[in-house]
Amino acid sequence: xxxxxxxxxxxxxxxxxxxxxxxxxxxxxxxxxxxxxxxxxxxxxxxxxxxx
Length: 52
Prior knowledge:
The protein is an all-alpha fold. It is built from one helix and no strands. The chain is elongated, with a radius of gyration of 27 Å. The protein starts with a helix and ends in a 22-residue tail after the last helix.
């Protein structure tokens, strides 16, 4: 029935939008970034002589 097509389009739009959001959330929250390796720098031992 062509009269019911807009309701079908609306439900398809909502379904695909929810699937897209769910897919993006799952990809975003499943990614665990690795912390970059930083060497320890002894800031307290180095003199801070500012010459303005």
